[in-house]
Amino acid sequence: MEEIKERKRELRDNITKMLNELSDSERSAKIRRLEDRLFDFANFLESKIPLLYVNFGAEVNTRGILKRCLAYNKIVVLPAFNSTEKYKIKLMKVDNLGEDMKLGSKGILEPDESRCKKVPIERVDIAIIPGVAFDEKGSRLGSGDGYYDKLIPKLSATTRKVGLAFESQIVQQVPMQSHDRHVDIIITDKRIIYKI
User: How confident is the model at residue 167 (pLDDT cuts 50, 70, 90)?
Assistant: First the structure.
């Protein structure tokens, strides 16, 4: 158990270091290619109510994706993390990224619960799941907080779980524990990976 935790920590550190070495222009080009690939992906294009995220740390920047979703008239759903109850996430509908967001307890922008309506999890038709690293089996390494490992099993079996990553965040094997959850599909700046 401790060995797996150490391997996860080491992988997070290595990916973060590698991403920090990217120039702004390299990062922007990768994000643009990934974003275009996502918006060409039929499951995402056809979705009406996507669960998205606001990036943090080594996760793919989603600001452009969020803006495009609103422009495409999608119902944008973002997580609000409960500061008093660990692993508790409320899914909230966001209409305006400037007015409906506030800095949350984790230091990440999240929906302002006083301005946004709660969305039942069964209404989400595609879930974009954050991650630091993925492998081709759909294994996912998150930030280490465990929120999404608790959320993923609550999503409908028909809801596609999609990870976003730069190609350099795809590794040979993500160390997994019994509580860790997989994604179905990973979209990178170079390809779409369907879980083996």
Answer: very high
Residue 82: exposed, middle, or buried by beta-carbon count in 10 A (0-12, 13-18, 19+)? middle
Domain residue extents for the chain: 2-194
**For the stretch 161-185, what's the b/e string if a residue is b when 16 or more beta carbons lie within 10 angstroms of its beta carbon?**
bbbbbbeebbbeebbbeeebbbbbb
What superfamily would CATH give domain 2-194? NagB/RpiA/CoA transferase-like (3.40.50.10420)
Residue 181 annotated as lining a ligand binding site: no
Would you say 148 is a known binding-site residue?
yes
Is 8 annotated to bind a ligand? Reply is: yes
* pTM metric for this prediction: 0.92
Please indicate if the annotation marks 109 as binding a ligand. no
Per the annotation, does 174 bind a ligand? Answer: no
Q: Find out whether 78 is annotated in a ligand binding site.
A: no
> What is the predicted pLDDT for the residue at 144?
81
Average pLDDT, the chain: 92
145 assigned binding-site residue: yes
DSSP result, 98-164: TTSEEE-TTSSEEE-TTTSEE--GGG-SEEEE--SEE-TT--EE--SS-HHHHHGGGS-TTSEEEEE
* pLDDT at position 85 over 80: no
Known binder of ligand: residue 53?
no
Residue 123 pLDDT more than 90?
Answer: yes
70 annotated to bind ligand: no
